[in-house]
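Hi everyone, sorry if this is the wrong subforum. Our group has a chain we'd like a structural model of before ordering constructs, and none of us has done structure prediction before. Sequence below.
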Amino acid sequence: MVPEDSERNTTSAVPDLPTGPDPTIAPGQVATETEADGAPLALKILVAGGFGAGKTTLVGSVSEIRPLRTEEVLSAAGESVDDTAGVRRKPGTTVAMDFGRITIRSGLSLYLFGTPGQDRFWFLWDDLSQGALGAVVIADTRRLADSFFAVDYFEDRRIPFVVAVNCFAGAQSYGAREVSQALDLARGTPVVLCDARDRDSGKEVLIRLVEYAGRMHTTRMLEAMGHD
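Answer:
Right subforum, don't worry. Here is the predicted structure as tokens:
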């Protein structure tokens, strides 16, 4: 099955935030604390992308807790600033963040923070990205240019990311290499095809990101040691 034209989840009540290591601290700090006290390892992951690409849907489909959502209904007041071309059936928009949690394996959990997609909320990204291990950039091939900001943002800040192409119904199919070329991604940046509504598909994207981010952080650490 493939996604419909809009993110289909609606606003739910705010859940209790999970206990354990603070997901806002740097990955290295988290690892140090877990080694010391034996607590499960928690990693912070961002889910970003353009308006209507499927961020809220992905967080909601994989989260093992009831996700926190900060959605508001789209209104006539926003018509002059919101580009809804291609996603006119989308009823609402994230105005702060989405939050969810998923356990990848025993002792390893991911805290997922979905970013708002519209440019007027981009000022929130700096706070949300603090301490993130990596990011998933959700891409919609019907509106691929909407992914440019997220790609540039994470590349500029050296935050490892993967591009997850959400395969919408009616959209022309493109391969991973074509999407990589269109987005002018750095060599080695993973591009995966997914269905943001499907838990297993979303989980595979997150596993791919953790593996990639782990390699990138290890490489940078070794490079830094080599310069000492």
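For your construct planning: The chain has six helices and seven strands. The radius of gyration is 17 Å.
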